[in-house]
Automatic annotation (TrEMBL):
Free-text function comment from the UniProt entry: Troponin is the central regulatory protein of striated muscle contraction. Tn consists of three components: Tn-I which is the inhibitor of actomyosin ATPase, Tn-T which contains the binding site for tropomyosin and Tn-C. The binding of calcium to Tn-C abolishes the inhibitory action of Tn on actin filaments.
SMART domains attached to this UniProt entry: EFh
Source organism per UniProt: Chionoecetes opilio (Atlantic snow crab)
Residues annotated as domain EF-hand: 1-31, 32-67, 72-107, 108-139
Protein known as: Troponin C
């Protein structure tokens, strides 16, 4: 969860803007009710500051995360990775990852995408291996 928070805390301020929660949940592939999301944001941002720290971020996001079978999710992600790893060489390019993320959530801005890629591609290689992909998708 910390990785997801860091991806959307682009200014490294220790806060995530409340306006990004629709994008965050879409990026995580989570279905959600907008009214329920607004309620969770209001509960965790009572002063209407428009931003939350990591603890409150978790209070907003965690109720929406489905408790899936970890092994089944691992297999689904492995299969998804294989689909995009066309060369079968164990990695995808960061450009391919950008396309995947854009497909998952077309509201992500270029800055959002760059921030996510920078977090995931820690070694700056321009590629993402399966472990990095898993870390990004499961947090």
């Amino acid at each position: 969860m910390k990785k997801v928070f860091q991806m959307f805390d682009q200014g490294k301020t220790g806060f995530v803007e409340c306006s990004k929660f629709v994008n965050i949940l879409n990026t995580l592939g989570q279905a959600f009710d907008e009214d329920e999301l607004k309620t969770k944001i209001a509960e965790n941002d009572p002063n209407k500051e428009g931003k939350v720290d990591f603890e409150k971020f978790c209070g907003i996001v965690m109720p929406f995360l489905e408790e899936d079978d970890d092994e089944a999710m691992h297999e689904e992600l492995k299969e998804a990775f294989r689909l995009y790893d066309k060369g079968g060489d164990g990695y995808i390019t960061t450009q391919t990852l950008k396309e995947i993320l854009k497909e998952l959530d077309n509201k992500l801005s270029d800055d959002d995408l760059i921030g996510i890629i920078d977090e995931v591609d820690e070694d700056g290689s321009g590629t993402v291996d399966f472990d990095e992909f898993m870390e990004m998708m499961t947090g």
